[in-house]
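Researcher: Next sequence.
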Amino acid sequence: MIQRKTMEELGRLSLEEIQDSEKHPVLVILDDVRSMHNVGSVFRTCDAFAVSALYLCGYTPAPPHRDIHKTALGATETVKWKNFDTTIDAINDARQDGYKILAVEQAHNSIMLHELKWENEKIALVFGNEVTGVNDEVLKSVDGCIEIPQWGAKHSLNISVSVGVVLWEIIKPNR
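Model: Next structure:
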């Protein structure tokens, strides 16, 4: 019979321990994401992959809000986050800290996600609006784009799913 692991067996860190723990040199930047449920899910995913921070930009909702907390399940307390008036401001902040900026977007000359060579250097990933994607002005300011290969009719994923797919592919062990 298969049994679920206990919290002790999973080695979960306390709030204080997670805040002081080493993070991956990855920033997630949300460019005008409108859904609070998506924002909460992204918080949770950023916690799971121990990213350095989450930047919420433009009209992307920010905590505290009950709908964000509903899906974040406490991750708003474990993930460092900042709010920016514009995504360009967030990109400039990340660039000043030495991050390479990549948008996750279906664009000409994008690198397919599985072909991205990441060597644990500082990288900021910009994810766009649920309907319109990454803003055109933002695309002009990034260092490049990565694309998630897709084969279905819609050729799009929910923003929170995209964040999970990209972070897993970049951070997974034994890359």
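Model: Residues 36-48 form the longest helix (13 residues). Helices lie at 7-10, 15-20, 36-48, 66-72, 75-78, 87-96, 136-139, 159-171.
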